[in-house]
Write a structure and sequence with these properties.
alpha/beta; 21% strand
């Protein structure tokens, strides 16, 4: 696996690799786990060249404390990516993607409205902007995203459609731990009692009914930010809730 920190180096390395080959991109913020491994496997199965980005995007964090607390382990993540079939890793510093004077943003509406858009103002502006930049830098044929972030997936599909980008977006199903909790980099922040309470989230989603889901969460002592059905690449029951200091999101696709 080759690792690059600059846009120029990445572009130079990918230029000969893309000739007659299919390039897949997996954007990540690091803290890699088996959910990311599923994305890497999907890309490996369909593409000749697999590129992963590893960048904790500051523009999608409204809370500076949340940004500073986000786990970072470059060496460990690089080993994980290499072990799961990634050919090229792009791990830039923030100044590489947001140089001095940066002032151009993608501000999505539509799929970005409501749910996370209400609770995390500016979040999808950061997501859409960084994804467009990564698409322009890596120029993939396909990009891979997990369904756990269902609204993000819908925003990215809308971005590609509305701005006429020449790439496909692949959705990969949510990967869950043996206890049913959706894999997330944030799970590591949960204490053992908090994790036990968090299991109410997958139980709530399993009802496939917003009213019953809310009852299950309330019984577990969880006051969710939202329990809602929305069209997110299909009718989706989505939940967001804070367990202690950790905010978790999850969803289940009701119909495509």
């Amino acid at each position: 696996m080759q690792t690059f920190e600059s846009i120029a180096e990445l572009r130079q390395a990918l230029a000969p690799l893309r000739e007659g080959r299919r390039v897949g991109l997996v954007p990540t913020m690091g803290a890699l786990h088996e959910g990311h491994a599923a994305l890497f496997r999907a890309a490996r199965a369909e593409c000749d060249v697999v590129v992963a980005s590893l960048f904790v995007n500051p523009s999608q964090f409204a809370d500076p404390d949340d940004l500073s607390a986000y786990p970072r382990a470059l060496e460990r993540d690089a080993d994980f990516a290499a072990g799961h079939g990634v050919d090229v890793l792009f791990a830039p510093a923030a100044a590489e993607l947001y140089p001095p004077g940066f002032a151009t943003w993608v501000v999505p509406e539509g799929a970005a409205d409501g749910l996370e858009g209400d609770y995390r103002p500016g979040h999808f502006r950061g997501v859409a902007t960084i994804c467009l930049k990564l698409f322009n830098v890596a120029r993939p044929d396909v990009a891979y995203f997990g369904r756990k972030d269902a609204q993000q997936l819908a925003v990215i599909k809308q971005l590609v459609r509305d701005l006429d980008l020449e790439l496909e977006i692949r959705a990969v199903e949510t990967v869950r731990d043996t206890d049913g909790l959706a894999l997330s980099s944030r799970n590591a922040r949960l204490s053992a009692p908090e994790r036990e309470r968090a299991l109410a989230i997958p139980r709530a989603l399993a009802t496939r009914d917003p009213d019953r889901a809310r009852e299950i969460l309330t019984t577990a002592g969880i006051e969710p930010d939202y329990v809602a059905v929305a069209d997110l690449d299909g009718q989706t029951l989505a939940v967001a809730a804070r367990i202690g200091a950790t905010r978790l999101i999850d969803n289940v696709l009701l119909e495509r």
